[in-house]
């Protein structure tokens, strides 16, 4: 990367401010500044981290501030990624510096925080005694060490008034000391030893030292730890040799290994004719400019093998490959297969790595040391500079959407990144999103299909069971029908594995008072509590609020609570009672808080130490368990009743995916799908594994109602602790939207504003929630509208007690 001859640079600061800023580069730093480095800059009376994007737009003669320091030896991202950062900031209405901060691995931001420190005068005054007790306590703590305001409040309770500190400051007893807090990520270094050039002759050395020297000489260079442990006093001899100028010690960068297990290399299998066609089509367009493919392959059709062939081809022609998967649990599987094929040439990026590990992986990619990276959504920002293909597996998965902070869709950004890089985007799924399939129909994407499972294995046979016939039964018979019961028993009898799916964790999801009928609700959310038997408590799935399982009714005080509704815990308890000999495990968020717990469950299935697995949607996602021959869907309807226009799409995808877990090995599979709505088209289409039928029906609804993929949406989410103020802010913002709409004929014609309305979940974690939906058939007009709304710096958008979040292309409207 070229050195800067310019005397000013354009910098994006890592704060929630719009735009970029020009800073002067002092002469002393000029030779070191590069695009992609972090710099320390003064901003609004503080110092903060900024990212160098290029030459500044103002000449140095102008009265501009200078950068204070350069924080990196080498750039952290290639200049080629800046257009992607700018596009993301622009499209998702998020400050550029904050976008870059989100993209970079965590722990890199150097931020400034003010700490309080005691002065000499303060110490003197403290020793004299006679201070008011609260002042003496504050000075006493600060006499031990500097503390930030937040730390002081933690120690003294929230009642430490700012006025007290300011009063002490005025009297000169304390000062605000500015200290820099560096991020936690650091490169791991290892000490190595090598001969010095022109080493003195080894005449007067002891035999031990001579042996040591010979060893270093024959190896060229060695890690110190290898030498030091070899012989008695080897460490001391080494230091003596160093002092005498025979050898020198130096540091070498060490990569932490994020992989626990050794993985044996695999040999590529023979491709099916369908796989062959897909691979040659995609490989044929590598290096020939931007193109997006949608690979629609039924479950078990060998999509991962296709990805690996395409990756091998891209790497062989000198390009890098980015593979996105929706969840960490799936990375372990994809990672294993890629590592078996590509060995050390794979980097992995996800949040289960430590900060240091993630930083290492990032640097390996940045330096071009690995051509392939696998990761979850934030890996879309992996710092490759020569990307050839971006693969998005399970492209329909909602996990690609980031909620909170920078709201973005990693799948959509992957396509944008491929476009900017002139690369190929390959999206794969058995149940594509309506959006992507619509893009195929309209000619934007190219369709590829794998209509059959590998080795001509049949798709599982799916039978529906009408749960209404079980309604009057008692006990487990209410939700494990006679048919399902029989099928489980037969499957276990044959020594095969069973998967039972229910998309809700916990034991009882709908506890109600037997005396007055009131539901047991969260005190901070507008939602029922769920009984978790293992934890012996009722819990809120939105805010974590918890009450003991012995809790009484809030309304009438009665201790008699009926535990209606169900979750995976109840299903597990039922099958344990029905099949006492089976080895049963459960996979949901309660049992997989750590990465090794997921690995343990996956291993148990693979090694057949688990006969029956009960799980939530975690089990539906892309896993490949060859010996599962029966999948039981306990209740297919849970997601159908969500007040969201995508409820039908989600239900279809989930059911088709979970059904696809059956019969992936040599034995054929069967699925029993229990439902209260056997005639619903999402459920019928899932039963028939008929994506086309589902698409035709659903796309008709979307068109009639003007929802995506026909219209584009931007959602404004307004939330605050005070019901009244939040409502007023939502209404004020709604009025501003309408005024903006009325003031411009283009907006009046093609913008539709829905709301403000109370959100379907009207209260979460003590915050009242409102929303406004802005809709248009024309993306450009919609974005112009949102930009004008933001540019107005509307007071409603920046209110202190009420938070407003902008979500472009929202996935969840609840
Ligand atoms: Zn009651
Ligand atoms: Zn709650």
Q: Within the CATH hierarchy, at the fold level, what is the topology of the largest domain?
A: Rossmann fold
Overall number of domains: 7
Beta-strand fraction estimate? 15-25%
Distance between the termini: 46 Å
| Mean pLDDT across every amino acid position | 86
**CATH superfamily grouping of the largest domain:** P-loop containing nucleotide triphosphate hydrolases
Shape field: globular
Provide the spatial order of strands within the biggest beta sheet: 14-15-13-16-19-12-20
Bound molecules: zinc ion
Query: Architecture of the largest domain, according to CATH?
Result: 3-Layer(aba) Sandwich
Decide which structural class fits the backbone: alpha/beta
Strand tally is 35
Helix content: 25-40%
What CATH first level of the largest domain would be assigned?
Alpha Beta
Enumerate how many helices there are, as a single number: 25
C-alpha-based Rg, rounded: 31 Å
Summarize the main sheet: 7 strands, parallel
